[in-house]
């Protein structure tokens, strides 16, 4: 199961990123779990300085912007399948 983490304080961009990540994962038929990380200390432990950010299986893939659904599909497709 893929772990998708939205790192941000809950702003509208964070919500949009969560929506795009879910659409991308569903379109690929991935089993996933979406987690919203809103605690600033937890976000900083990822090394993220600009939100929103997307982490896949604990690795930050995008920060400071909301990528398109197509970009997120590419990110999710490029990772190794266990």
Brief overview, please?
By secondary structure, the protein is α+β, with helices and mostly antiparallel strands.
Which terms summarize this structure?
single chain, Glutaredoxin, alpha+beta, 3 helices, four-stranded mixed beta sheet
Structure description:
The structure is a single chain. The chain has a single domain, classed as 3-Layer(aba) Sandwich (Glutaredoxin), CATH 3.40.30.10. 38% of the residues lie in helices and 26% in strands. It is built from three helices and four strands. Helix 1 packs across helix 3. The protein is globular and about 30 Å long. 28% of the residues are buried.
Give the mean pLDDT: 94
Helix fraction bin: 25-40%
Beta-strand content bin: 25-35%
Strand adjacency order, main sheet = 2-1-3-4
User: What is the N-to-C succession of helices and strands?
Assistant: EHEHEEH
CATH architecture: 3-Layer(aba) Sandwich
CATH superfamily, by name, is: Glutaredoxin
> Treating each run of at least 4 consecutive H or I residues as one helix, how many helices?
3
Number of strands: 4
Cα Rg:
12 Å
Q: How many domain regions?
A: 1
Can you tell me the CATH topology?
A: Glutaredoxin
Give the topology, please.
Layout (H helix, E strand, L loop, with lengths): L1 E6 L4 H16 L4 E6 L2 H6 L7 E4 L2 E5 L5 H9 L5
Parallel strand pairs: 1-2
Antiparallel strand pairs: 1-3, 3-4
């Amino acid at each position: 199961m893929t772990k998708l983490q939205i790192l941000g304080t809950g702003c509208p961009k964070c919500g949009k990123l969560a929506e795009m990540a879910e659409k991308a994962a569903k379109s690929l038929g991935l089993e996933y779990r979406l987690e919203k990380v809103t605690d600033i200390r937890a976000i900083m432990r990822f090394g993220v300085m600009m939100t929103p950010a997307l982490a896949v299986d604990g690795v930050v893939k995008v920060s400071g912007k909301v990528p398109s659904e197509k970009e997120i599909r590419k990110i999710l497709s490029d990772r190794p399948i266990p």
